[in-house]
Write a structure and sequence with these properties.
three-stranded antiparallel beta sheet; ArsR-like_HTH; HTH_ArsR_DNA-bd_dom; DNA binding
């Protein structure tokens, strides 16, 4: 594989390497949410949560849309949810079942998303 592709994969995984960002990804895997709603769920100031959202958005993990004064975020890579669930099962020692997402361009052969 091309080194640039591997570098981009590493950047995406690095961006996911923070507990707040993982929690944001999992929440957005359930539904679209307003930035103010996301910020209210954490014991951090809005600026901190906003920085985490910006990191995820800049790497294409989440996307945003504006509705008047509000900004809504949604998960752009829904295939991350089964991946995070798989990791959680492995951590807990539960049996792991591989699932593949039909909502994005990831595939069973492991090709790039």
């Amino acid at each position: 594989m091309e080194i640039e592709t591997q570098r981009k994969k590493a950047m995406l995984l690095k961006a996911m390497g923070h507990p707040i960002r993982i929690e944001i990804i999992e929440m957005l895997g359930e539904r679209e949410m307003c930035a103010c709603e996301i910020a209210s769920l954490f014991d951090y100031d809005r600026t901190t949560v906003s920085k985490h959202l910006a990191i995820l958005k800049d790497l294409g993990i989440i996307e945003q849309r504006r509705d008047g004064l509000y900004i809504y975020y949604s998960l752009k890579l829904p295939c991350l949810i089964p991946m995070l669930q798989c990791i959680e099962h492995a951590i807990l020692g539960d049996p792991v079942e591989i699932q593949f997402c039909s909502k994005c361009s990831c595939s069973k052969d492991g090709s790039e998303i």
